[in-house]
Write a structure and sequence with these properties.
Oligomer: homodimer
Radius of gyration of chain A: 18 Å
CATH topology of one domain in chain A: Tetracycline Repressor, domain 2
Distance between the termini of chain A: 33 Å
Number of helices of chain A: 11
Largest interface: A-B, 34 and 34 residues
Number of strands of chain A: 0
Chain lengths: ~200, ~200
Amino acid sequence: MAAETVQEAWADLPPTAQKLLTAALAAFGEQGYHGTTTRQVALRAGMSPAALYMHFPSKEALLYEIARTGHEVNYERVRRVCEERVGPVERVRAVVEAMVSFHAEHHTLARIVQYEHTSLTSDHQRELIGVRRRTEAFLREAIDEGVETGVFDAADASMATTAIMSLAIDVARWYPSQRSRRPARITSAYTDLALRMLASRA
Amino acid sequence: MAAETVQEAWADLPPTAQKLLTAALAAFGEQGYHGTTTRQVALRAGMSPAALYMHFPSKEALLYEIARTGHEVNYERVRRVCEERVGPVERVRAVVEAMVSFHAEHHTLARIVQYEHTSLTSDHQRELIGVRRRTEAFLREAIDEGVETGVFDAADASMATTAIMSLAIDVARWYPSQRSRRPARITSAYTDLALRMLASRA
């Protein structure tokens, strides 16, 4: 059973590793990746710097584990809903719902990952760009199928894909200061707006 | 004459202050705000830390000057095009064009400002949120006018405003890795998508 949240994905790790990742996520969120030392992460988790290095050989390894889990949990949520739904309209709806809810729930993680991406090694960057492309591909395939079958009318399918991904990704930026907007309202408005962008005739 | 770019806005400052702001922008972009010291900014600008403090009393003062100028230049661009265009369709188009081009041109600044907003003093945060609201108000007014006159059909005008702002703001995230997309293509696609979101009948 694939994890629904990042915390669930970490549940099988040793408790000390979970504590370190939780501490790193909070510290990076508050002070930025470059502004945080591994010593600070260790102390925040109530451990010695030496104990940290038993689990994570470097600060980058912490960022990578956070970013990798975030990418994979988001990918899995999108994949699962796309499998459950039939037809391009329902699949576009599903991707928007999955992406919006992920970026509202995991806004701290998502912002760190978006901003600190270039602090990862180039191998790690490439790997995660791959996961991102596979996630985006679910949306692009739904759009292309809709265009082929005449359900959608997209003037520029590539830009429309980016735009719909942007709507969902940018939720991580504004959601923390707009919590009076319930996730259900955001999801309902954004699925409607995404289908309007595609001139859905459904 | 209001400045068209952040660099133009800084052109009246003493050359040493301009150098320090340019150095701070580059350093914050590479190492994050928390990962950068005022000493590093001074050295990058070819000055002593003491010379920096003659112009900026703190690291926050550098971030504030960068963020304030960014907000004001973007606001001025939006205000100007809105004054030139007539009617809600043309004004929505104008806001999207101005916002997209600002966020493509000033992507490093925009990302720093988006991410490091909470590092500003609360007075500075409040001031800049005010500029942001006034910028967004041009879009909201155009949407409301379009809905009242029956040119637009927005199910949730507040969410549609956020969504259109998001499209433009998120350009700063993806544009650096998608430079093969010319700004003219992005602007043309995004004005079309914004008007589709509003079910424009123009």
